[in-house]
Amino acid sequence: MNVERRGQKYFIETYGCQMNESDTERIGGQLEELGYAPADDLQDADIVILNTCSIRQNAEEKVYGKIGEVKKLKERNPKVLLGIAGCMAQENKNKLIQRMPVIDFVIGPYHIHDLKDIISRHDAVGSHVVMAELNSQRVQDYSELRAVRKSKIFAWVPIMQGCNKYCTYCIVPYVRGKETSRTIPDVYGEVKRLAEEGYKEITLLGQNVNSYGLDFRDGTNFGELIRSLDDIEGIERIRYMSSHPRDMTFDMVDAMAESSKVVRHMHLPVQHGSNAMLRRMNRGYTIEHFKELLAYVREKMPDTVITTDLITGFPGETEEMHKETLQLLEDLRFDSAYTFIYSPRRGTPAARMEDQIDDATKHRRLQEIMDVENDISLACNQQMVGKTYMVIVEGPTKQTEDNWFGRTSGNKMIIFPKEKNIAIGDTICVKVDTAQTWILKGQMVE
Ligand code: 5AD
Ligand code: SF4
Question: How buried is residue 207: exposed, middle or buried, by Cβ count under 10 Å (0-12/13-18/19+)?
Answer without folding.
Answer: buried
